[in-house]
Amino acid sequence: MLYRAQFTQVKLLVCVSIPASKTGGLKTYVHISTPLSWPDARDYCRENYKDLALIESEDENTNAYQAKNSSSTAWIGLYRVPWTWSDNSSSSFTNWRGGEPNGRNEYCVVETPEHLWVDVPCATEFSFICQEEYEYNLWALHS
Ligand SMILES: [Ca+2]
User: What protein residues have CB closer than 5 angstroms to ion ligand 1?
Assistant: First the structure.
């Protein structure tokens, strides 16, 4: 008998999403001008974006600062002692104003109009900077 192999063209589409934080990509920030406490601001960011702003480098710090208007004081995702980001990550990058952090009951951090970090009481209401969900999408097509 004669067998004739028939090859059917097979296409494989692969989509891989990797959080920017795992690939070294820069995060995208959004300033929300409505004043909220730090916990409420974090919840708002988690519901509508990804989280409060995590800032892990000078470039990201510049982007976060530029996301808000220069006169605003805005929450970022840093809180507590030891200082931790709202997603429980830690990072060596800091941008404290001279003399900060200094507060006994100041466990949450704002970015000031002077582009510096200051710890203040978490219940104070400030505008805030959210971090957008940002991913690399890698597509591969095999045929
Ligand atoms: Ca302080």
Answer: 100, 102-103, 106, 119
Ligand 1 centre distance from Cα of residue 133 (Å): 30
Alpha carbon of 38 to ligand 1 centroid (Å): 15
- pLDDT tens digits in sequence order for the chain, 143 residues long: 555 656 566 666 555 555 555 555 668 999 999 999 999 999 999 999 999 999 999 999 999 999 998 899 999 999 987 899 999 888 889 999 999 999 889 999 999 999 999 999 999 999 999 999 765 555 555 55
Please give the residue range of the domain that contains residue 92: 26-134
Total domain count, the chain: 1
9 assigned to some structural domain:
no
Cβ atoms of residues 123 and 131 within 8 Å: no
State in Å: Cα 101 to ligand 1 middle.
5
Question: Is there a domain that residue 2 lies in?
Answer: no
Identify residue 97 by its one-letter amino acid code. Answer: R
Q: How far is the CA of 113 from the centre of ligand 1 (A)?
A: 15
